[in-house]
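I hope you will forgive my troubling you with a question about protein structure. I should value your view on which stretches of the chain appear to form regular backbone elements. Here, with my thanks, is the record as I have it:
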Amino acid sequence: MTDIARQQLNEDIIRQFRSGGGHVGGQFAQTPLLLLTTTGAHTGAARTWPLAFQADGERLVVFAANGGRGTRPGWYHNLRANPVGTVEVGTESWEVTASVISGEDRARLWERQLVVSPRLAEFQAKLDWEIPVVALTRG
């Protein structure tokens, strides 16, 4: 998929998400999605991405796999530069602070995500770096 096609798909998903109260159709109909808005590390502009997530207690957990591409996703770079963002889940939105998860906590969350998203293992196999697991915590 080209970068332009991927951007168009993301824009379509964002529109569906917002007009459907947090629900989308198509290939992501059964996938828990959130919208993450970050501040561009270089531009300072607001950028929004639809991301699959899992809830872990009070935090939301996302995976910076970037579809197995050889680079980390833009949203990850943005959060490393400025860890404050906004999430939308369903019809609610709130500010979050991001932190990269490591160690046993990362391993537990990674294994749990592989159950519902086994393609993550394929993505990881293509890379020479560990896919970051990121916690989004309210406030």
Observations:
- The longest helix spans residues 3-19.
- The longest strand covers residues 92-101.
- The radius of gyration is 14 Å.
